[in-house]
Design the sequence.
């Protein structure tokens, strides 16, 4: 089943197994990245941070990079549309421990593209080039780029932009195989990514719609990419990236964690969320993760509905513990993940920012 991946060199950083956790606002926060990293991911990327917010050191932006998180190599993603501001923000991220800066040319949500950031930059190649150039020159760490196929089906300029990026000194490119106008609709076009791979001699990472092992193999075959990036496929499965790595190394699909291990992980994740955000915010942020961990287990819809009504963190913990114990007592051994669909839900979340020309990106 597997096709072994070679390590990737991104400047001084070696990505031993190029299976990468995608940046996802509101999802790949410090608690989640830490679990995915500990399970053995090749690389994890932070939620996107607006360059203006980084410079103004908003609480939200500071929370997204925790210098004490011990995540090892961390790629921090920046969004913005002003070269000098992006460059300044990149320097601050490096000061706070970023080992790689990733630039976002992929986010499709209105609040970001109307500020002329995210995928809107794919429409303005000269400005895109100036941003890449400014950031590469500003920092000593490698700079990478994440983008889509293009703005729409008539403007599929990812291969051209990849060449511009290579000339600017970008060290790795990730392509989500959709256009901006597709948002999260339709299916990711892995074969298109081969055009980007053929256009540059940089490592190219394929992204979009990978949820199981056959997807990984097919995506790599169709795209010819050097690695894969996985986002929504990790919802409620922080171990999935590591399973993909094992599958690629050995050709065998690894077993799912036992239900006891899954229960312990949900509770550990929930504790980390409460600690990171505080009890009030953590209570709300924790709900979606608890829900994702329960997908495919019997009675999960009722369980999720109930969790959403509990207003005290300790009661949530008791309820979660009791629910898993009941499943274990009934002899349930695991989840049925067949037929699991992908939803974009929040997409790249943003918070409002009145700073000219740019929107601040939120937790
Ligand atoms: C909730 C959510 C938040 C996202 N936030 C970001 C982001 O901050 N930066 C970014 O480049 N892409 C973001 N994306 C896009 C993902 O990184 C990824 O490109 C996309 O989800 C396709 O991959 P997947 O099918 O494996 O999820 C987000 C996607 C989702 C669903």
Sequence:
């Amino acid at each position: 089943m597997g096709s072994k991946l070679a390590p990737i060199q991104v400047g001084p950083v070696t990505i031993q197994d190029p299976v990468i956790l995608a940046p996802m606002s509101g999802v790949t926060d410090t608690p989640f990245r830490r679990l995915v990293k500990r399970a053995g991911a090749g690389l994890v990327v932070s939620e996107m941070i607006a360059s203006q917010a980084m410079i103004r050191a908003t609480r939200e932006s500071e929370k997204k990079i925790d210098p004490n998180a011990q995540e090892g190599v961390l790629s921090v993603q920046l969004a913005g549309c002003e070269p000098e501001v992006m460059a300044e923000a990149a320097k601050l991220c490096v000061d706070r421990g970023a080992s790689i800066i990733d630039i976002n040319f992929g986010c499709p949500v209105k609040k970001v593209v109307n500020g002329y950031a995210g995928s809107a930059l794919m429409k303005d190649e000269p400005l895109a080039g100036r941003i890449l150039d400014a950031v590469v020159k500003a920092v000593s760490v490698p700079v990478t780029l994440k983008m889509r196929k293009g703005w729409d089906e008539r403007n599929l300029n990812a291969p051209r932009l990849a060449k511009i990026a290579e000339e600017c000194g970008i060290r790795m490119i990730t392509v989500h195989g959709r256009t901006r106008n597709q948002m999260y609709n339709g299916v990711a076009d892995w074969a298109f990514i081969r055009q980007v791979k053929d256009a540059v001699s940089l490592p190219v990472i394929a992204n979009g719609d990978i949820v199981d092992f056959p997807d990984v193999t097919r995506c790599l075959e169709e795209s010819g990419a050097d690695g894969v990036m996985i986002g929504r496929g990790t919802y409620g499965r922080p171990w999935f990236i590591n399973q993909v790595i094992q599958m690629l190394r050995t050709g065998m699909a690894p077993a799912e964690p036992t239900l006891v291990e899954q229960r312990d992980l949900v509770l550990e994740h929930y504790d980390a969320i409460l600690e990171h955000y505080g009890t009030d915010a953590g209570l709300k942020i924790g709900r979606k993760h608890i829900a994702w961990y329960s997908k495919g287990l019997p009675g999960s819809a009722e369980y999720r509905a109930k969790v959403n009504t509990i207003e005290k963190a300790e009661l949530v913990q008791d309820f979660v513990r009791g629910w898993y114990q009941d499943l274990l007592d009934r002899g349930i051994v695991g989840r049925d993940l067949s037929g699991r669909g992908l939803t974009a839900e929040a997409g790249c979340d943003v918070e409002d920012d009145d700073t000219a020309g740019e929107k601040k990106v939120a937790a």
User: Anything to note?
Assistant: The longest helix spans residues 259-277.
